[in-house]
């Protein structure tokens, strides 16, 4: 055990580096604030429950895309028993029409760049 000093120094440096984000935020208070997306809609509820949509909306949209394009299915039965048209532009964008205040806010927060707008036209912003 002749290298005890080097080992302890290494462990301290490692712990400082690994915990840096935690104590940096504690001292500076510059953590990103959770986004509060604004929904402008007449509808009372989404095609699925809010927690499910927050976690899995991309999986649902990919599932819809595959069913519409590959299986020619155009109707989706939600968990509430109501039928919805499987369409980003005809269903989702009726409520989520403000891309900047809704989509971009959350996607920027989590650091993702979805490819929706590679094919779909970006909606005109409604106030």
Describe the protein in words.
The chain is mostly helical and 127 residues long. It has 2 domains: 1-31; 50-119, no CATH class. It has helices at residues 4-28, 50-71, 88-95, 100-110, 116-119, and strands at 75-77, 83-85. A two-stranded antiparallel sheet has the order 1-2. Strand 1 (75-77) and strand 2 form a beta hairpin. The longest helix has 25 residues, at 4-28.
Features:
single chain; 127 residues; mainly alpha; 2 domains; two-stranded antiparallel ribbon; 5 helices; 5% strand
Topology, please?
Elements: H1 4-28, H2 50-71, E1 75-77, E2 83-85, H3 88-95, H4 100-110, H5 116-119
Describe this structure in a few short sentences.
The protein is mainly alpha-helical and 127 residues long. A two-stranded antiparallel sheet has the order 1-2.
Radius of gyration: 22 Å
- Our measurement of the CA-to-CA distance between the termini, rounded to an integer number of angstroms, reads 69 Å
Q: How do the strands line up in the largest sheet?
A: 1-2
Helical residue percent? 55-70%
Derived structural class: mainly alpha
Overall morphology? elongated
């Amino acid at each position: 055990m002749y290298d005890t000093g080097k080992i302890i120094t290494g462990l301290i440096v490692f712990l400082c580096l690994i915990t840096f984000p935690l104590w940096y935020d504690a001292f500076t208070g510059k953590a990103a604030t959770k986004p509060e997306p604004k929904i402008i809609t007449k509808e009372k509820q989404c095609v699925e429950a809010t927690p499910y949509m927050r976690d899995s909306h991309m999986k649902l949209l990919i599932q819809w895309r595959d069913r519409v394009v590959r299986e020619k299915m155009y109707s989706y039965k939600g968990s509430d028993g109501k039928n919805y048209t499987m369409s980003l532009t005809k269903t989702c964008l009726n409520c989520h029409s403000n891309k900047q205040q809704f989509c971009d806010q959350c996607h920027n927060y989590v650091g993702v760049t979805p490819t929706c707008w590679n094919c779909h036209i970006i909606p005109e912003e409604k106030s």
